[in-house]
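hey so i finally got around to running the thing on that chain from the lab meeting. sorry it took forever, my laptop kept dying and i had to restart like 3 times. anyway pasting the input first so we r on the same page abt which one it is
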Amino acid sequence: MAATPDDELPNAVARFWGADGRVTGSGFLIAERTLCTCAHVVASALGTAETDTSAPAAPVTVDFPLLTRPSARLRATVTRWSPVRADGGGDMALLSLEEAALGTAPVRFAGGTAVWDHAFRVLGFPLHTDDHGVWVDGRLRAPVGKGWTSMEARPASGTPPIGRGFSGGPVWDTDQGAVVGMTVAAETGTGATTAYLIPAALLLGLDPSLRPSPFRGLEAFREEDAAVFFARRADSERIAEALRTHPFVPVAGASGVGKSSLVRAGVVPLLRSTGHTVTDFTGQPDTDPVRTLAEALGEQFPAARDLAGELRGTTDRTETAVLLAARILKEAGPRGHVVLLDQFEETVGARPADARALLDVLLPMTRAAHPTGRRLRVLATLRSASLEELVAGGRAEELSGTVQMIAPMTPAQLDEVVRRPVDAIPGVQFQPGLAELIVGDAGDEPGALPLVEFALAELWERQEHGRLTHAAYREIGGVEGALSRYADQQLTQVCKAPGGPDEHVARRLFEQLARPVKGKEYARVARAFDQLPPELRTAAQALAATRLLVITRDSSGRETVALAHEALVRQWSVLRRWLDDSREFLVWREKLRTRSRPGTGSRRRREATPRLPEAT
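ok and heres what got predicted. didnt touch it at all, straight out
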């Protein structure tokens, strides 16, 4: 269902009050605690000149009259000021609320600039008193001088036209279902119906931080990024539907196809919207994942904490697992609960026995049922090859019948990924031909998606006056070269910085974060931060600022460090050379790690330690 101003604007519209107790105009939230209005509305409230080049220092009084429970009067201070110019332009102000009003939310802006003949609605307070406001609708027209856009109002019989009291109000584009600008002025005289708005792009241009990058670079899209996650709607719905009828749903595909982003920004929001609760489970390297899961579930569901504790302390866990799930379902959402095992291949590849032990707890939990029909489900992301490590011990039927394969994006999907986030943001656009060039350069390789996202994130940082340019694209090295070039630059800067790690220490750290796999490839692997030597912990903290590494916390709150994305192993020639040169040593080290884990047997056959190559 399309959004309406009645749904969204009441949470954002503010009313500005003068010292004489009269309303001077309107305004609206464009970010948390950030109000937008006309400079002349602020000047009128404070009794100052709207043409003053210096921003007023005194606070202004506002309230939010359309909330279900109207707010008390609050104070806001000007942070950005564009006074009324001699030609009538400018006339914009941003203000910071001293405290947030409960129940408020920023408006959503429409990205399109072609608004001719779109229907609009705008709210004003023409009586200048404590009234509830007046709605006026009409049709949007074309851009005019000063960067404004004209509006043709069609006030209902007995309704005042757009005029005093409407300034600073958000203009809602009914066709796009979002705000396109701010009311700034109106023609006067008998029968006048023309008014003007300042487009959203100019308003957001007052503060560049109001237009954050919609691109995630090497990081996966998160649940809170759902609004800028595109091209995977059908896949998201398919996976969510599979969870309705299957206890365990593995989402499989090649590295770099976007599995983590799909489940986090696509599937999880769908699950929550239909009444599911979710446990986002992340285990820590070299710890018992069952113990970590029990701690996470006990924290999320206090009534199940005692059973979660029993799960940690027993070897025969099946019965306890079913009872634990039944307890969880009493507190879960109306449609049930989902445990998400994202990037499960990291556990499967490095510790297959631990991965199977975790499933031997989770699969029995899916057998529990609540009288209302709620069920517990498991959603996992992993590579197709990882399934082979899991099916031993009678798990094949439960694991293989519901695999949801994710294919690399088609050129049409990549085009959506490139264009739609930019199209949704007012005042930003690609230079002609650049979007097509990016999609063409990506080709049809399975691992192209993170490289495209990274290149787009770098382009965003280099935009010029709201344009993403061909020159910047060449500068970063295009889709193929952007990541490697960036990594080289960041490594050099970190190693040359005062107090930074030398290259030998950086190399030791990076070699901890990848493990050899079949053939001549490598897989990303997380390590426990507190288990690293002190010099590697210091290096990790320095390199995390470069976005090449990420330091996060597992489901029990312990810190881990990992490569930002496996694409670094494939695309960064320096890292690849280090790993290849040290491969014999890395293989030996992984064997040693496996043998030293509890429960892997008592084999301790002595092997000569391979010589570790010198850093170059």
